[in-house]
Amino acid sequence: MAEKDTIISPRNPPPGAAISTATSATSRSANSAKNKETRSRKLSRKAMLTINFGSVAAGLILWAILAATGLVGLPGPLEVLARGGELLADGTLAEDTGASLLRVLSGFLLGSALAVPVGFLMGWYHVGRAIIEPWVQFFRTIPPLALLPLVMVTMGIGETPKIFVIFLAAFLSCVISTYQGVVSVDNTLINAARVLGANNYVIFMRVVVPASSPFILVGMRIGLGAGWATVVAAELLAAPNGLGMRMQQAQQFYDMPTILVNVIVIGILGLLMDRLLLMIEAHLTRWQERR
Amino acid sequence: MTSTNSQAMIRFENLRQEFTLTGTTFTALDGVNLDIADGEFVTVVGPSGCGKSTMLNAAAGLLQPTGGQVLVDDRPVQGPSPRTGVIFQQYALFPWLTVRKNVEFGLELKKVPARERTAIVDHYLELVGLTRFAEALPKELSGGMKQRCAIARAYAVNPEILLMDEPFGALDALTRVHMQEQLLETWSKERRTVMFVTHDVDESVFLASRVIVMAARPGRIYKEIKVDLPYPRTEEMRLSEEFAKLRSEVWAAVYHQPGVAEAHQ
Q1: Are residues A243 and A109 in the same domain?
Q2: Residue ranges of B 103-132 with Cβ closer than 8 A to chain A
Q3: Using CB atoms, which residue from B82, B125, B181 is nearest to A197?
Q4: What is the pTM of this model?
Q5: What are the tens digits of pLDDT across the range A233-243?
Q6: Where does the ABC transporter domain start and stop, copy by copy (chain B) (predicted)?
Q7: Which domains does chain B have, with CATH numbers?
Q8: Is A3 a residue whose pLDDT tops 60?
Q9: How do B24-37 and B8-21 pair as beta strands?
Q10: Is B182:B188 a contact under the CB 8 Å cutoff?
Q11: More confident: B204 or B3
């Protein structure tokens, strides 16, 4: 190994000195590993999963008991499961899920796609910040759903207003986060790139973008959550299909199992999408020091 | 304190630097004149607030001087340049790049062909003893290893000057001693003009052939102390009488200069 030629390295201390230095350097690098150990000693992954499943099972049993006693007018889990099977069999569930997902994903993708450049513009150029910030801050205080009546009047009752409202929800949460990310890029890193010969374009692409990626991904997660919350409510108002619309329809027939099937599907899908983004985030930002 | 040297690699000419903080302007540096010769290793030491880092940043082109100028190789510094490598106290490694990619960063910007890049990176990783950690991410390294990676990164673009801003300030005392020796080792193999800013008196004497002691308020050069110990510097030299004498001379210049007592109240 090339190490051999190095006169002084942690594994090859200078004669008569710094032996303790070498050990200190090695123990320091082992520090992070030690930290992980202590954390994982708390609970193993397997134990966590077991407890997770136990908790869910206990919740389901509690629900079944509550439903059986008739204390609350809820259908039991089995009844809901049966209804879910029916809805799946006649294709309604798939259609509704597909319609809702399509709206969320189009709104979310459009919103994030616009939020990232706008957030960079705000963070990088003071003029850009001065122009955009008041608008973003203003619209941020309005729940996107509150704009739905207005949007429906101007855009009609088709897909456009729903996607637009979701787009707005996703955009607003992602743009703030991206902007924060750009503003908080460590100045030393920018200087380090500059003294290595980087111009503004290189600094932007190779320092600012990667350094703010953790912020962008957090913004996207919040945006996806906001979009998902918005779609259901938007469908409650007016839609030909979708999970929210189906609940609204079932409500009129006092069809409790159908409402619950949709509630559960919304929850599961939201959870799955969040996990997926979390996995992407963990992969893209694995270089980060985590405390 | 002007030493006229026609071969000066770095020349500070009447450098003046003012900063405005919350409306009040204060003078960080006033009338700094200094020549650093080609291949010389100079340390700058002084109390906090004496403007030693400001001086380094001006030489790096990261600051526009309020007055006077810094010349590198007889040309005024206009901005950062790969000819002047900088090593920061906070390492400033790109955390999303591996050790290898960090060292390669400046070479890619210089459009060095890939094969040549690999050879250069390998060479400097070996020089600082990080060959085994080429594919590691900065977060997996200890403080000393991070700084060695930063040194390799600065060396890789082949600068004429290395400006080091308290590079070992965040390390524990033992690692610091070890890093000082390794730095001199690297420097003796690949000699560059070095300006090394520190607040550690021992470090300033051990590394340099000349110690510049600064005074604060306003930041200015207070004293210049020649270190006549030969290179390579050894562990024995650290314990020698001559070293002790130089250390107390620098110590006295740093801590018993007029105005230090008020500055620390």
Answers
A1: yes
A2: 105-106, 109-110, 122, 125-129, 131-132
A3: B82
A4: 0.77
A5: 888 877 888 99
A6: 10-241
A7: 1-77+201-265 (3.40.50.300)
A8: no
A9: antiparallel
A10: no
A11: B204
